[in-house]
């Protein structure tokens, strides 16, 4: 049970990619009054956690309504994670926040999609569908991953000073490599399950 929680927490943490989001958070928060920054961060983190828990617990109902098989969800999840990992290893230049200088973010873009983006929501749907009897384990994994991400993002200025721009880029690429391996394993498991059902 503990290994399942740790494994799921690591996967979710890699997908949340808090270190990759640090430069965007810096650009968003630098125009906001220093006294407001912590309050804004806490609010956005809690909103993101609520959205992710909502998807985790409603995920099985959503997939059941769409009549999706577990094999299809695993294969699709593996492909999605692989694409996310490739983007982490080979990031695109720039990134729009959609905010004017000095404008305080509310839900968008910090809570959604930077923290609770399509990738993490898809992963939570996959976990909920994969084994709906282990919701306690998945919830624990999500809270651990969210807690680690929250810690990094709450002290974003310190991490940015310690690692620097090149250090952050290197760590993000390393996290991307780990996520590639997780995604390939998920894809292979899905294909194996599909072959087993049709043979």
From TrEMBL:
Q: Does the keyword Transmembrane helix apply?
A: yes
Which family is annotated? Belongs to the UPF0056 (MarC) family.
Q: What is its main location?
A: membrane
Can you name this protein? UPF0056 membrane protein
Question: InterPro entries, alphabetically?
Answer: Multi_antbiot-R_MarC
Report membrane topology. Multi-pass membrane protein
What is the source species? Moritella marina ATCC 15381
- Parts of the chain that traverse the membrane: 6-29, 41-59, 71-90, 111-129, 135-156, 177-196
């Amino acid at each position: 049970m503990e290994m399942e929680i740790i494994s799921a927490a690591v996967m979710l943490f890699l997908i949340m990619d808090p270190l990759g989001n640090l430069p965007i958070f810096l650009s968003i928060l630098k125009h906001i009054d220093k006294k407001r920054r912590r309050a804004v961060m806490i609010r956005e983190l809690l909103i993101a956690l609520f959205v992710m828990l909502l998807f985790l617990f409603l995920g099985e109902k959503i997939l059941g309504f769409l009549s999706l098989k577990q094999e299809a969800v695993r294969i699709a999840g593996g492909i999605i994670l692989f694409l996310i990992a490739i983007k982490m290893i080979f990031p695109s230049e720039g990134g729009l926040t959609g905010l004017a200088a000095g404008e305080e973010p509310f839900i968008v873009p910090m809570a959604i999609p930077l923290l609770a983006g399509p990738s993490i929501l898809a992963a939570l749907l996959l976990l909920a569908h994969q084994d709906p009897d282990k919701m306690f384990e998945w919830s624990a994994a999500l809270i651990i991953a969210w807690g680690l991400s929250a810690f990094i993002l709450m002290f974003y200025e310190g991490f940015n000073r310690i690692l620097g721009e090149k250090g952050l880029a290197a760590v993000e690429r390393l996290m991307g490599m780990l996520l590639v391996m997780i995604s390939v394993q998920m894809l292979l498991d899905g294909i194996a399950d599909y072959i087993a059902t049709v043979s």
